[in-house]
Design goal:
alpha+beta, five-stranded antiparallel sheet, 207 residues, Structural Genomics Hypothetical 15.5 Kd Protein In mrcA-pckA Intergenic Region, Chain A, Ribosomal Protein S4 Delta 41, Chain A, domain 1
Length: 207
């Protein structure tokens, strides 16, 4: 299973904004964006300027940002797009729904963890149950009506327990009671809680 293994903070610096990929570190003074601003990575980062970007460049950056937010590599992201254009409905909204329905994202949206990377770790280590069955595939596509839960042992993990105690509310299209969450419906683009411009991503792949 392929995944990005290089420093995640470089991704935020490349996009010039916080993508909140490192959990608690993103909210602390240790965050490189807080220390260095939106300085681009690399030894020549200070000399590189963010001048005028072409239409293609804007679309590319939006696509890259979405990939990095959800922890998806190019082939899989393109597959989501190809499936979205073949599915009835608004292609941009369907694409968002595919990304948001990933099991690792559901765990993050339910408030089990404070970052998608930690949620992915929770899933790959076999600590998530879907309708009572263990699922260890982060890209597993959940559907409305499914119940996602934590075993008792997983609920005691250091990076999980504080979130349950603080009772972080889940996304509006989800519901949670204790260590058990349910997918009530699919989200709309307005409910994803980010400024991701999906129309630019669709334009990029439609070129």
């Amino acid at each position: 299973m392929a995944k990005y293994i290089d420093p995640k903070c470089r991704l935020c610096r490349r996009e010039g904004e916080k993508l909140y990929l490192k959990g608690a570190r993103c909210f602390s003074p240790k965050c490189p964006i807080e220390k260095k601003g939106a300085q681009m990575p690399g030894q020549h980062g200070k000399k590189r300027t963010r001048g005028r970007i072409s239409g293609y460049g804007i679309q590319l950056r939006e696509k890259q940002k979405a990939k990095r937010l959800y922890g998806v590599l190019e082939n899989q992201f393109h597959h989501y797009y190809e499936t979205a254009i073949k599915t009835r409905g608004n292609t941009a909204e369907v694409l968002v729904q595919f990304l948001e329905s990933r099991l690792d994202n559901i765990c993050y949206r339910l408030g089990f963890t404070i970052s998608r990377s930690l949620a992915r770790q929770l899933v790959t280590h076999g600590n998530i149950l879907v309708d009572g069955q263990k699922v260890d595939v982060p890209s597993f596509q959940t559907k409305p009506g499914m119940v996602v839960s934590l075993p008792d042992a997983a609920a005691k993990f250091d990076f999980v327990a504080p979130n349950l105690i603080e009772k972080n509310p889940p996304a509006k299209w989800l519901s949670r009671v204790g260590t058990q969450g349910k997918i009530d419906r699919l989200p709309t683009r307005e409910e994803i809680g980010s400024d991701m411009k999906t129309n630019l991503i669709i334009e990029f792949y439609s070129r």
